[in-house]
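Schema walk-through. Below, the input block comes first and the output block second. Nothing else is stored per chain. Lengths vary across the set, and this one has 341 residues.
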Amino acid sequence: MNKFWLGLVVCAAFMHGQWALAALELRENHPGTYTVKTGDTLWDISEMYLQTPWLWPEIWQANPQVNNPHLIYPGDILSLIYLDGKPRLVVNRGSVKLTPQMRTSPLGAAIPAIPLDAISSFLSRSRVVEKETLEMAPYVLAVSGNRIISAAGDRIYARGEFDPATKFYGIYREGETFVDPETREKLGIQALEIGTGRIVAEDEEEGVTSILLNSSSEEVRIGDRFLAFADEEVNSIFYPKAPNDDVDGVIIAVEGGVASIGRYDVVAINRGEREGLATGDVLGINQAGKTIRDRVGKGRVNLPSERAGLLIVFKVFEKLSYGLILEAERPLSVFDEVTNP
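--- output ---
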C-alpha cells in the first residue's frame, strides 16, 4: 500500500479510537460499585457513570452467568471493571443476599429506562392514526337509557363495520392533529383511548351493535370511535442510545399545551420510523439563536443554535414520535430543534 494512504488509514484509525475514548467519558465522582434500588432508572444509573449517558450500550457488559443478563433488578450490584483497557459495567446477582421475592422477580420488576409514571398513559392509551382511519371506524350511536354520556358497566350502541373475528375494542376520542411545521404534511391524529368494550349483540337489520362497556377512564360520548386493539409491543424496558442515523427535526407539540417545556414533560417530534428513529434513541434539543443587530459591521445577524436539553424517544410511529424530556437547561418550547446528541 502506498505510504501516503497507509498513513491516512493509520491516522484515521487513531482519530476514531481517540474519538470513541473521549466520547465514553466517565464522571469523576462515579462509584466503583452500586447497589440498585427500587425507583432507579437506567438513565439515572447511566448518568451516574457517564458524561454522555446515551452511550450506555458502550459500557454495559451483559453477564451470561445470571438470569436475564440484559435486565437490571433492585438488589443487583453493579461493578465498574476494565476489559482490554475499556471501562465496562457488570452486574453481580449471585453474591447478593436477596429475599425470596427478589430471587423470583418477574420481568416486570426490572428497572425501567425512564420514570414510567411520566409516560404510562402514552404507552397504553395514546395512538397516532391517519384521519381516514378514525373517519371509517365504527362510532358510538347512543347510550342505554338515552343518556348523553356513559361509564363502565353501561350498555352502548354503535354503528359501522366491525371485524366479525374481533369482540373486544378500544374506544377512542379524536385528539390533536399533528402537522409538520416545515413541510405542512399531516403526520397523523392523536387518538386517546377512553375505554374498552365487548360486543354482546348485533342487530343486522338496523345495523346496530350492542356493546358492554368494560372500563372507562372518562365518560364515553356519542361520536367516540371504536378501534381494534393495536397489535404492537408496549415495551417499557429499553436502553438509552444514540440514533443510528442523522436526525434533524423539531418539537411539534407538548402534552397539556404548556408554553414552557421542562423536565419529564412529554413532547411529540416530527420524525418517526421512516426517518430511522427507534425506542430508546436520545436526542439533543437545540434552541435557535436570536437575531441581533450588528452594531459594528451593521446589518442583522442570526446567532447559532445552542444546546438546551435532552430527550429520549419512548414511542415511535411512522411519521412522528413521542419523547420524554430528560434534561432542560432552560425553558424549552415548541419548534425547538432536535438533533443527534
